[in-house]
Design brief:
14 helices, alpha+beta
Length: about 500
């Protein structure tokens, strides 16, 4: 029996070597105690006493069964411990794999992130740079480790960075962004925006994380915007033009949101003086133009643009003309105009010139209409623009029949040559007293003198030609009469009278 027990003990000792050290020590101690007990039992005098041998054997058998149960329990515990160990090892492998994948993802993010991530020590030295350092500043990340972060900062920005870094050391956590310039490997300066996160007290970091990104394009845009605003302010100060924005209210009125400062110079009023419905309903707008503007605004039923020219009366009582280009924004849901934008340009000088030109044109039209000679004007494409009353009397066609049409009084075979002549006059080759045959409405022919000159606009561009016609029939009739009288005189006088001059009589001085 003891041999069987010893075999079980040896089996247990072999299996105990596979257990974790803590469990192995416990089981080994138990087996050692059990072995000692067996040896004591074997050495006991009870085995030497024959009389007590049967009793000892019975007792030993009981102990053996107890030992077997104990060993079986220990074997079961060892099996459970082994299963738990295998589960723990499997979980540990899975955790290691997940950690490896997570680290690979983090490294991939750091390598491909456009932002530069740096870790600085409390002394300001770099402990880590992400791979973006090469893309942003052109440096190898490993070469910058151990260097001071402020070494590459522009001297004009260094004090601001030092103050920012000092606050990060004093106040843990995320700080506000800061902008500064850093020197690129090629010597140029790069604008960056950085956000610091102080984790000096975090045992896993023990430093300050700086997240930086390149903002060169944004800075250029900001500089361009500032320059544009400066240009706008300068232009707004020196120009008489002004812009405005009105917000449409549900009651149909408009509230002024803003107006440029040139408004005050043009009108003498400050924006706060505008009525809620806009200046077009105030005393600023000339009374003759106010109704037209309000009706046009009320007629807006969708987003559209428009332009008006009207008069305003400034605080000095002066009447000034403006050209108002506006855009109304129509809200389909609210079914109303919700905003009105516009820009006004003062055109008083231009209007005065236009009025003078209009007066001159009216005078010229009146003169042409009452002129005794036939006058017409033709455009570059040959259509008739002017046909006065003398032309109606001379050629027979009324103005209503001719205006907008090609000249009707040109003979069929001469149209091409005649229009070439008018075109040359439009190009600057004046025609003075050119004799041409033309047609009358009744089909008869009439010989006229033609004077042609170019018609130009204010910019000097040729618009067409003005043509003046004088009837030659009366002149020819007079010439014919003169020729007839001269012939009759030749008949009445002797032929020699044309060659012999009568003697001249001399008067005596002094009376004889």
């Amino acid at each position: 029996m003891l041999e069987t027990v010893y075999k079980h003990l040896e089996t247990l000792q072999k299996q105990a070597s596979e257990l974790p050290p803590p469990h192995q020590a416990i089981l080994t101690k138990t087996l050692e105690n059990l072995s000692v007990s067996l040896k004591e039992m074997a050495a006991s005098r009870m085995f030497e006493s024959a009389t007590n041998k049967a009793a000892k054997l019975v007792e030993l058998e009981k102990n053996n069964r107890l030992l077997e149960r104990t060993v079986a329990q220990q074997v079961g515990q060892i099996r459970q411990l082994r299963e738990q160990l295998e589960k723990q090892i499997s979980q540990h492998r899975r955790d290691n794999q997940a950690l490896t994948k997570s680290e690979a993802k983090v490294q991939a993010v750091l390598r491909n992130s456009p932002d530069l991530i740096s870790i600085l020590g409390s002394d300001g030295r770099v402990r880590y740079h992400s791979g973006a350092l090469q893309r942003v500043l052109g440096y190898n990340p490993e070469e910058r480790v151990g260097k001071f972060h402020g070494e590459l900062i522009h001297p004009d920005d260094l004090l601001a960075w030092q103050a920012y870094f000092g606050k990060l050391l004093e106040y843990p956590g995320v700080a506000r962004p800061i902008e500064y310039r850093k020197r690129h490997a090629d010597g140029s300066w790069i604008y960056v925006e950085s956000i610091g996160n102080s984790l000096v007290g975090d045992s896993s970091v023990q430093g300050i994380i700086i997240n930086s990104r390149e903002i060169g394009e944004r800075k250029q845009a900001e500089i361009a915007v500032r320059e544009s605003e400066l240009h706008y302010r300068v232009m707004s100060q020196i120009t008489s033009d002004f812009a405005y924005s009105f917000k449409g209210l549900p009651d149909g009125k408009f509230a002024c949101e803003w107006v440029t400062e040139a408004f005050e110079r043009s009108t003498g009023c400050v924006p706060e003086e505008l009525e809620s419905f806009g200046w077009w309903n105030s005393e600023l707008v000339h009374s003759d133009d106010k109704e037209m503007l309000i009706k046009q605004l009320e007629g807006c039923t969708f987003s559209r643009t428009g332009a008006n020219e009207y008069r305003i009366i400034n605080q000095k009582g002066e009447v000034r003309w403006v050209r108002d280009c506006w855009q109304a924004v129509w809200d389909k849901t609210a079914e109303r105009v919700v905003r009105l934008w516009g820009a006004c340009q003062e055109i008083t000088d231009r209007k005065q010139v236009e009025l003078k030109l209009q007066l001159v044109n009216e005078v010229m039209i009146a003169q042409m209409a009452s002129a005794p000679l036939a006058i017409n004007c033709t455009s570059n494409n040959g259509s008739t623009l002017v046909w006065n009353r003398a032309a109606e009397q001379l050629f027979g066609w009324t103005a209503a029949e001719v205006l907008g049409q090609p000249l009707p009084n040109i003979p069929e075979g001469q149209k091409q040559d005649f229009y070439v002549l008018l075109k040359s006059a439009g190009n600057g080759k004046w025609q003075n007293g050119l004799q041409v045959p033309l047609l009358k409405k009744d089909g008869s022919s009439i010989d006229v003198w033609l004077w042609a000159a170019p018609v130009r606009d204010a910019s000097g561009e040729t618009l067409g030609s003005i043509n003046i016609f004088s009837d030659l029939s009366e002149r020819k009739r007079i010439q014919e009469e003169r020729q007839k009288l001269a012939a009759m005189k030749d008949i009445e006088e002797p032929f020699w009278a044309r060659y012999v001059s009568p003697p001249k009589t001399q008067t005596k001085k002094g009376g004889g």
